Amino acid sequence: METGRTGNLSTASNTPAAASRSPIKRRVSFGTIQIPELSKRLITEILETARISSGKYVRLFEERFAELLGVKEAVALSSGTDADILALSVLHDFGAKQGDEVIVPALSFVATGNAVVHAGFKPVFVDIDRKTLNIDVHQIESAITEKTRAIMPVHLMGKPADMDGVNAIAKRYGLAVVEDAAEAHGARYKGKPVGTLGDLGAFSLYVAHIITTGEGGIVVTGNEAYAQILRSLRSHGRACKCKECTLNTTSGFCAKRFKSEDGGDIRFVFERLGYSSKMNELEAAIGLGNLECYREILDKRRNNLLHALKRFERFRPYLATIQEEPWEEIGPHAIPIVVQEGASFTRSELGHYLEQEGIETRTLFASMPTQCAGFAYLGHRSGQFPNAEYIGRHGLHIGVHQDLGLEEMEYVMERLEKFLEAYQK
Ligand SMILES: Cc1ncc(COP(=O)(O)O)c(C=O)c1O
User: Fold this and answer.
1) Using CA atoms, how far apart are residues 29 and 10, in angstroms rounded to an integer?
2) Which of 241, 273, 291 is the last residue of a domain?
3) Is the CB of residue 213 below 6 angstroms from any atom belonging to ligand 1?
4) Mean pLDDT, the chain, whole residue set
5) Which CATH number does the domain housing residue 127 bear?
6) Ligand 1 pocket test: which of 30, 183, 213, 275 has the largest number of ligand atoms within 8 Å of its C-beta?
7) Distance CA 195, CA 155 (A)
8) What angle do CA 23, 25, 27 make, to 5 degrees?
9) What pLDDT is attached to residue 6?
10) Domain check: are 317 and 392 in the same one?
């Protein structure tokens, strides 16, 4: 397409209004949710038995999720944010102190930075690489101090962060790696599922994600001790942390309950500061149904995403997106769109236009330290994280979910083309 010409915005055939005259207007929503028959059947059964709080279906969901990722342990929680918080909180059992530091990318959904603070740590922000939208590993080492305990890479938009780079630095400095894989279900890095490449991996199960329980989160780890701590943390720091709680799954007797040193009830012995963050059975039922059609959902989303990314090339140099590299498979969360320096239109103009055309948009998050008020207390100055800040001002993302198909992807491409023809001077 011809994007470099000088347009005259006032001519009849070359106006925003003309750009809007699409023969068929489609709806390209950002997210969707599947409530498969299995979920409906389980929900009815759960409601009939009135055994709603965390029990056998939560455990089954954990087992299936762990199996899918080929990892030993999965601990289900009430949100992806809690998955980040609790995964980081595990470090307190291994000597990390309040106020110690965790390195995170400056650009992410704000939950990443919030989680670091809520887990009792100071977030130390590192700028991102604009091509990948992920943490720039070349800038990590200079952010490490005596107080650094962990690196928390985010696989933004399902694109794997440079995990070889992150893990090598973590090993050199004796740091933990906690992956924020909230948006990266199905993503693979050098053949391995994202979320299993560090010490702990945190996923969101929020409704717009590839595997969902409606609201929810889950942490995976290969380390059984970490999983036990997570089970304690999600339930107020209790001393009981069995994978399957006999009291919650049967009406039976728990032989372990009164085996504490002083014969007290271990359900009321609190070993550490905890949270209240359990998943319930109804949420697990939605998740179990979703796992049944996971492969189909993933294939559809990948098909949509790869089609869109291939077709995106022609919008250069005005719009940019991510690319899939030979060593990775992107977990198809959404399509990022970044308005580039040479464009003569703003993100708001593009976003407004797409919304009018039925294409739902979201901004591509923000530089947490300099564009999110909650982190102002850290005293960072605008300009310190130029790449994250650029995306915070110029980035959008749109849906690729399983209820969309190649026709919708083509519709988006055609609308973008029309927009550039009308708006690009
Ligand atoms: C990168 C990232 N981290 C954490 C979260 C938090 O997940 P939740 O909304 O389930 O709390 C999200 C939300 O989607 C996210 O995108």
Assistant:
1) 31
2) 291
3) no
4) 93
5) 3.40.640.10
6) 183
7) 9
8) 160
9) 28
10) yes
Instruction: Say if ligand 1 is within 6 A of residue 134 CB.
Output: no
Same domain as 82, residue 157: yes
- Which of 107, 204, 277 has most ligand 1 atoms within 8 Å of CB, for mutation? 204
Is residue 403 located within the same domain as residue 265? no
Over residues 356-369, the pLDDT tens digits come to 999 999 999 999 99
Residue 352 predicted with pLDDT over 50: yes
Q: How far is the CA of 425 from the centre of ligand 1 (A)?
A: 37
* 228 and 348 both lie in a single domain: no
Q: What is the DSSP string of 75-117?
A: EEES-HHHHHHHHHHGGGGGT--TT-EEEEESEE-THHHHHHH
Dist CA 78 CA 159 (whole Å)? 24
Rounded Cα distance, 188 and 210, in Å: 14
Please state whether beta strands 200-204 and 217-221 pair in parallel, antiparallel, or not at all (unpaired).
antiparallel
The alpha-carbon radius of gyration of the chain (Å, integer) is: 23
**Residue written as token pair 């299995």:** 38
Please say if the pLDDT value at position 13 is more than 80.
no
Mean pLDDT across 278-301: 97
> What residue has token string 């933004």?
156
The pTM of the full predicted model, rounded to 2 decimals, is 0.94
Give the structural domain span for 70: 37-291
- The residue from 92, 155, 185, 209 that is catalytic is 209
pLDDT for res 420: 96
Same domain, 264 and 304: no
CA 245/CA 188 separation, integer angstroms? 33
- Considering the domain architecture, whether residues 139 and 259 belong to the same structural domain is answered as yes
Q: Are residues 21 and 43 in the same domain?
A: no
Q: From CA 135, how far away is CA 178, in angstroms rounded? A: 13
Please list the residues that pair with 398 across neighbouring strands. 335, 361
- The C-alpha atoms of residue 212 and residue 297 are separated, in whole angstroms, by 11
The residue out of 243, 272, 291 marking a domain boundary is 291
